[in-house]
Structure formats: C-alpha cells, structure tokens
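[recover] target loaded
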C-alpha cells in the first residue's frame, strides 16, 4: 500500500472537522417517501446483513477503493452480502485528488468493483470527495482546479459505465474547496453528509439531495430522498432522480 493510503470511510473526515449534532432518528417520523440504508467499509468487517434488512434498511453502499493504492479487502463479501438479503447496492471511492488525476482514480475504481450494471439492483458508483486525511483541506487545488479534477473523474466514470457517479460530500467542504464554481447538479445525484436533525443547506448549486447521510453511529446511516420506486429508478438508469 503506498504511503498515506489507508482506509478512510465515507464521512470519516467530515465527522472530524464538522459539528456532529443529535441523530434525527428520534425526531424523524416514518415516511413512505423515504428509504433507509447504510454504508460500510473494512471497518465493519463481517456485516450482519439480515439484521440490517430486518431493521428496514433497503440499500447499501460499500467502499471499494481509495486513491489508486487501496482496495477494501472485504469488498466482495460485503457487496455480495448486501445483495443476498435483497438490498440494492453500490460501491464508493474515497478520492485523494493530490495523488493522481481524476481519470486514473475513476479507472482504478471501475477496475476494482466500482462499475455499474443495468440489472435494476446496482446503484451507480460514488465519488466520495471530502476533507484531506493527510494535509491541506482542499488537497492544494481549490476552486477551478478542484472542479476540473472532479469533472475528470465524473467524465471518465461516465465513459466506462454509461452513468455519471453520485457525488458524496458535505456542504462546507464543497463550497470551500470548489469555490462554488462548476455545476454538477444536472448530471450527478447528490449524497450529502450532515450529522444533524435536518439536511440543512445543500452544496452549491444542487436544488435537492438524493441521499442524506445523517449519522455515523453505530455505523453510517442514510436516507434516500424519495419512495422505493425512485430508488429502483436510480439503480435502473435514471440519473436525475428527484422526489
């Protein structure tokens, strides 16, 4: 594993750098217009997928890769385990933009489990772009340079799979590190992380989120912004899923 390539899960740096409020679970009423899910990495090891299914979870994202030097050793078991209980599932990539270009990292992701299939069960892959675990918050490339890196990853993923990736981020990081430049809202569904009782302000210029990661305890938990039929549409190729 290259120096500085470790296993950072989705939101690991957001929880480190941003305020973590109360979980919204107690305050949020059950709704037919939302679907609950989880995301996992090697930190979870063996996952009791049946238990999560019985708790109402219907989708999962599994970490596949980080940079171009890390593979989740438990990816295959976790990915297949989610599918075995009936969950829709997809993979995510933890980006390290200062290590290599977006095209290279998208290729590494797709080559190691991050692709998409038009089977109605596979969610599009995710670009997890958040605080740098190793140094400068914006990886030394804020503004136009960061937007170009993200665009390179997104375009390369689209070319390989036929789908633009979901973008996972937080509002604070995105607005700081892209400088509110670039617009991915028409092509890339938004998965926003905010550990509070409401989703809050969204990254510029998305008008609506697709998935909200609302807590990281006891593991990352997420809510899809729409009914199950819309989640199925996302897995089936509808890149602009909205409520």
């Amino acid at each position: 594993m290259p120096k500085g390539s470790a296993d950072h899960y989705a939101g690991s740096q957001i929880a480190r750098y941003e305020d973590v409020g109360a979980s919204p679970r107690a305050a949020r009423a059950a709704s037919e217009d939302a679907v609950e899910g989880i995301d996992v990495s090697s930190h979870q090891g063996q996952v009791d997928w049946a238990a999560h299914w019985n708790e109402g979870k219907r989708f999962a994202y599994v970490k596949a890769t980080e940079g171009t030097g890390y593979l989740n050793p438990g990816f295959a078991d976790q990915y297949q385990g989610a599918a075995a209980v009936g969950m829709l599932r997809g993979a995510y990539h933890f980006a390290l933009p200062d290590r290599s270009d977006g095209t290279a990292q998208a290729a590494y992701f797709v080559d190691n489990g991050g692709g998409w299939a038009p089977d109605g069960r596979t969610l599009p892959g995710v670009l997890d772009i958040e605080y740098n675990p190793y140094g400068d918050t914006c990886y030394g490339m804020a503004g136009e340079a960061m937007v170009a890196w993200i665009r390179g990853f997104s375009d390369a993923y689209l070319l390989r799979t036929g789908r633009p990736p979901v973008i996972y981020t937080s509002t604070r990081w995105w607005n700081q590190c892209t400088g509110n430049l670039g617009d991915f809202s028409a092509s890339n569904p938004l998965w926003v992380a905010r550990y509070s009782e409401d989703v809050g302000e969204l990254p510029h210029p998305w008008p609506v989120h697709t998935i909200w990661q609302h807590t990281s305890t006891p593991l990352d938990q997420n809510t899809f912004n729409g009914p199950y039929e819309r989640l199925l549409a996302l897995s089936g190729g509808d890149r602009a899923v909205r409520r």
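[recover] notes: The domain at 12-236 is CATH 3.20.20.80 (TIM Barrel).
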